[in-house]
Amino acid sequence: MADLFAGVLEGVSGAVAETTSFEGSHVLELPVPDGAWLRDFGVTYRLERRAEVAGGQFRLALQGGTAMSLSCQVSTEDRRSIAQLSWMAGTAVTTDVEQLTRFGGRILHVSVSIAGVDAVAFHLDMGAALENALSGWQLAFFCGTMPIPASAENEQWPRGINRRLFVVGHEDPVTHRITPSCRTMPPLLSSARIRQAFLDLRDLGVRTPGVFPLLEVPTDVASMGAFREALGGIDMDGVISEMHQGRQLTATRTGGGAYTFRFVPDARYTGPRLLLVETYRLTSVPLRYGPGRVIKTFTLLPGERTTMRVSTYKRSSQSIQSTSSVLDSTSDESEREFEQSVTAEQSDQSQSAKSFEYNAQASASAKGSWGWGSASASVSGGVEGSNTSARQEFAKNLTSAVGKNASRASARREVSVDTSMDLKLEEGEESAVERTIENINTSRTLNFLFRQMNQEYAAVLHLVDVRVAFFSGHRESREEVPLAEMDSLLRRLLAEDQITPVRQQILRLIAATRDLAGDTHPGFVRNGTPDGTDLAPAVDPTYTTDYTAPNGRTVTLPGIITAAEHHVMRTDGITVDAFLGEGQGLDAYSTGLQEQALRSQAADNLLKEREAERLQIALEIARDGDTRRAEAFRTLFMPTQIVNQIDHAAVNSGPRTNNAGEKN
Questions:
Q1: Range with the poorest average pLDDT among 63-67, 158-162, 268-272, 593-597
Q2: Residues with Cβ < 8 Å from 417, sequence gap 6 or more?
Q3: What phi and psi, each to the nearest 5 degrees, are found at residue 551?
């Protein structure tokens, strides 16, 4: 039976087989020499409570890491000067400000000058009225050239790109973590501040970036309704508790448009990073289709009748969700569980939070994030070997997650066949089919074998695009460009003499991408036109590779195929086969009665056939008008006429006479 389905049904489905794809990104960190980065002048600031600063007073401090003269001015929202400091060299300079009640608002404007030239200006949201937020606190600024190589000793240094503008950020005095300047400083995130920001978000749809930096508020009406509806199910006190423990509220949007919220560890400044952002598609290709496990067998005795009900796993919305898979269907649950499985497969869980910080906006837009790898020049085999190893690890994690997702869904796809001895009607909305069947045999049983149909899939992972990005640990620093704009990005990041080596390294890493068979694909990135005109390197959108399944079917997919696995999924289809039992249930006498009954029925059938032939001959004679044949037919087939003798004598005899010759 399996061969029958494999030969017939596969031939039917092969011509119109439908593939489904699920897209996501994988990030690789690229090694860049420490001295390659452009060095700029940046500012970090620190807000901390100091015992020597009395209540009602505020202290401003300034220090530099360079011999240049520095000056810093702090003013209120209405540009009313609070304090100004100048620094030349040596230890930090400070100034104390009293009578804070003179200053209104809650925003501080800060401007920093280097050698008398304005360098950078920014503002700090203090989260409360200045007289309360600054009382008893010290606000210290440190200025110096940045970036410097990231290490355990200098992770507190901020860096960024933004056209070589100065980098600003808040350094936590305890953890030495950097919070970008657009985020509210952690010491000022009081419960009241978080509560008000959450109410504004839930009730008004207004986001406070300083409090919820990882949330993206949708702009269209439908998405905004789904966003606020999901927020309504979150406990506000739980949000406050999580954020006080150093976790950020994030949103993930499923393919169906629904929003889910979760907390991730607050990001840590990592220093400047150059990234290779690879976009992959996971395409499921349907292959063979045929019967699988036996789900039911039952027997009807001679003359027995029963009602059969077939119920599938699609009888409720809950079971539909639990049986969906990324291979052959899509649902919010299947996509969410799949991404969580991919995340769980990460060997370095610390990379998971980094990946979410980088992909926060993409996650809110229902785009998958599939991992964060690292390519280190110190790995044996060089940068290309490390890059290949990271891709192989990613492919292993993803295919493992696919296997778990498929196994979970397939195991829950139950199809049941129930039988009862009489027909019974039930009310409800359950999806089921009922049929009444009867064994008309009088001496042998009728057996039924039900098998659930299976569909085989090839889960093919293929690389379809590559982009280059910069990232320093916080989403505010992220800048991602297509490969064609790589040169422009590198010019903003690196020293002039480092651009070409790094550019060549990136192209070598992409060229080192190997397919399922271990081959490279130089044509994946094109550098010119067919007529020989030089162009910026770019991924060829028309580039394709072929995948040949074990059954011989070939599928053409865009990009480079890097991994493939086969999975068998249960379906809601069933196939039924019936066969008679071998044993006879009658003794010799009963068998003889059956044989005689068959002979009698055969004789009756033969007589009816001859009568039908006689009528057919009569019709032909009548149609032809052949009198000779008609007379012969009458002679052969017309029955002898029976005449009543008494009536015949009365009609045909004449008057009777007696012996005397008289009439009676």
A1: 158-162
A2: 295, 296, 298, 308, 309, 310, 450, 574
A3: -85, 5
